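Run log, item B.
One chain of 126 residues. Sequence copied directly from the ordering sheet:
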Amino acid sequence: MSNLRTGFWFVLVGASAAFTHLAVFALTESHLWPEVANAVGFGVAFGVSFAGHRWLSFQDAGTSLWQSFRRFAVTALAGFAANEVIFVVLLRGLGLPSFLALFLALVLASAQTFVLSRLWAFRRGA
């Protein structure tokens, strides 16, 4: 699969997962601390992200489904850790509105997720 096609699907799947994350955050934020609502959004979006990346972005992966799932879970958790740190700094440190802080955190953490997904979680050929 070409890098252009991989990039296209990565952006589309990532945008779908980010929208899911933001929607769940919006629905839960009034009931939870923003940091917890962020975690709930991540949990729901994880399923969207894994399925889309496994079968669309990196369909030529040279790893088994189970191996990809385990590796992607580590990758996604690393991305969420970066997301949460950035989110807290923007929200609590700089006082940005929660939705804007989360959006920026998602954008900034996505590059890390792409690199780890491409080079490790869904590595081509084995």
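Observations after the first pass:
- The two ends are 15 Å apart (CA to CA).
- The mean pLDDT is 89.
Flagged for discussion on Thursday.
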